[in-house]
Amino acid sequence: MTKHSGIFGGTFNPVHNGHIAGARFVQQRCKLDEVRLMPCHLPPHRATPGVSGEQRAAMVQLAIAAYPQLALERLELDKTGPSYTVDSMRLLSEREPDTRFYFIIGMDSLCYFCSWQDWQHILQYCHLLVCQRPGYSADQGDAPVLLQKYGVAGLSGLRRLRSGRILLLDNPIVDLSASGIRQQLQSGQDCSDSLDPAVLNYIQQRQLYQA
Ligand SMILES: Nc1ncnc2c1ncn2[C@@H]1O[C@H](COP(=O)(O)OP(=O)(O)OP(=O)(O)O)[C@@H](O)[C@H]1O
Ligand SMILES: O=C(O)c1ccc[n+]([C@@H]2O[C@H](COP(=O)([O-])O)[C@@H](O)[C@H]2O)c1
Description:
Blueprint: E1 3-10, H1 17-29, E2 34-39, H2 53-64, E3 70-72, H3 85-95, E4 99-106, H4 107-111, H5 119-125, E5 126-131, H6 143-150, E6 151-152, H7 155-159, E7 166-168, H8 178-186, H9 197-206
Parallel strand pairs: 1-2, 1-4, 2-3, 4-5, 5-7, 6-7
Helix pairs in contact: 2-9, 3-5
The structure holds adenosine-5'-triphosphate and nicotinate mononucleotide.
The site of nicotinate mononucleotide has 15 residues, from strand 1 and helix 3.
């Protein structure tokens, strides 16, 4: 039987409640069998994070522990070099021919999706599911052109095809970003509303994100 898997790629530096709320919402709304959070090894488009891939993955593992439909995807951590999404989705599709993949991104990522490596090919391997994020909308950057060409109005439009369509989701907005949280941690502010308690404890024990 065909499996439907969401892949939520990210730097997750650190994973926060916005990521987890988004992943849970998408899994339920799109009736996915699972959502895998896939921390990148080297982000292709930004500076190498100060916190290692293994530590970022350990925090993801802690944050998803209570949610059986969420899992950690290690594919990018186990490879060297920049983590291009097109390579990851190609590999996953080859390894799991009976799985349909849905790559999950925030609206900020859709706005510059056409600058991603070989972006048209990404759409050969999966659909895109786009979560709302504060500060970004479907009329910015690359989003209007992409939605005009590939957008569908609902889940049935996705299910008809194996890949190549984009669905905007109506998830509740969670106004959190990892960069904001890093700044708050550096200045000693309380981040207990933004992070899973086990993730916060992991950060504090290892004194991550200190000035
Ligand atoms: N609050 C949020 N709501 C919905 N999607 C989010 C949210 N935060 C991040 N995302 C999405 O999660 C994916 C991974 O994001 P990432 O790990 O870079 O976190 P971030 O909060 O965007 O980090 P930074 O502030 O460092 O850019 C991206 O597709 C991003 O758009
Ligand atoms: O493949 C690319 O060119 C590419 C460019 C920018 C971002 N991505 C992926 O998009 C996901 C979210 O990235 P980020 O920086 O918001 O954590 C993550 O899986 C990145 O590897 C991928």
